[in-house]
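Subject: design request, 331 residues
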């Protein structure tokens, strides 16, 4: 098994260790951030508070240290274009805390694309992704280890399909795996997979993120039967599915032998600028993101699963072996 690129340089895949496959050290609407850098983001903590640049660094640093204490060695940070990807920020957090951070290339859009990308075809967009994977991101030598794309409520629109084809072609050229944000409530997964199949991507290179937002086992098995990985990766985001139902779904899938296809994570954002304080307060008061934290999986999800019968072997497979196989491949 080969090496995996991190923000601190390439590491042996064996050194990944316990990995949270979907956590954001910082998430920003990058256009707003570039134009109005004084605008603040929010940290979903007790109490909720706003954070400027230094505050965002402090919060990400503290969470990263806590993860290391809890035995997490690596996170994958899927902040791509439109989520304010900032690999220099990731590199600094990683260097200061010892948490290994795996970064990505790709585009996080539910439909909108800027003119620059509207006028380009999938091959030309794939070129951009390949650049990040082979040359480096944002003028650094930090290389992307996976490719992000997304489909959500609008479905797999023409623009979203173009991004998926570009991701597939960059994956085919480089061997980099794909993480596809999905929306089970809109059943986007099967169509996303279909595009990857048409493009000849090996299914074991594909992760359908947020599949755990559903507890419809028929839907989930329809996705799993294609041979992809699935993200049970939004623990704490009660607005999509409550904690207990997420746990029951993972346990049911473990019983059916799918431990080698699942990732556990929280999709937490150390800071996020999507919501003004008043809206975030209402959402938190309504319990929509109860206990949502980067540390929720090691602190509570794993202990609860162990109590419910998850074996040490199943845990090792989901937390260590699956990230390694997805990132480095079996080849
Ligand atoms: Zn995410």
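Subject: RE: design request

Done. Sequence follows.
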């Amino acid at each position: 098994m080969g090496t995996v690129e991190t923000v601190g340089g390439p590491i042996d895949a064996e050194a990944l260790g316990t990995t949270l496959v979907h956590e954001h050290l910082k998430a920003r609407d990058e256009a707003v951030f570039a134009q109005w850098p004084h605008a603040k983001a929010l940290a979903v903590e007790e109490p909720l508070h706003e954070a400027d640049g230094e505050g965002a660094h402090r919060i990400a640093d503290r969470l990263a240290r806590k993860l290391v204490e809890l035995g997490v060695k690596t996170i994958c940070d899927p902040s791509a274009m439109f989520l304010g990807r900032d690999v220099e920020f990731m590199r600094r957090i990683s260097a200061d805390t010892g948490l290994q951070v795996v970064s990505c290339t790709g585009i996080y859009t539910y439909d909108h694309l800027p003119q620059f990308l509207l006028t380009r075809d999938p091959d030309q967009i794939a070129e951009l992704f390949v650049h990040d994977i082979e040359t480096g991101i944002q003028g650094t030598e930090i290389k992307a280890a996976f490719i992000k794309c997304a489909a959500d409520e609008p479905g797999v629109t023409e623009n979203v399909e173009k991004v998926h084809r570009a991701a597939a072609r960059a994956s085919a050229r480089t061997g980099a795996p794909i993480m596809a944000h999905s929306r089970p409530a809109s059943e986007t997964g099967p169509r996303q997979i279909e595009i990857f199949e048409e493009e000849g991507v090996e299914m074991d290179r594909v992760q359908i993120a947020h599949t755990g937002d559903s507890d419809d086992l028929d839907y989930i098995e329809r996705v799993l039967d294609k041979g992809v990985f699935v993200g049970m990766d939004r623990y704490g985001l009660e607005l999509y599915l409550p904690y207990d139902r997420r746990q029951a779904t993972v346990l049911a899938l473990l019983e059916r032998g799918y431990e080698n296809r699942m990732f556990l994570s929280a999709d937490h954002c150390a800071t996020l600028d999507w919501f003004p304080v008043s809206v975030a307060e209402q959402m938190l008061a309504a319990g929509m993101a109860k206990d949502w934290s980067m540390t929720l999986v090691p602190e509570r999800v794993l202990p609860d699963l162990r109590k419910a019968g998850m074996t040490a072997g199943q845990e090792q497979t989901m937390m260590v072996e699956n990230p390694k196989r997805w990132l480095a491949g079996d080849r």
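The radius of gyration is 18 Å.
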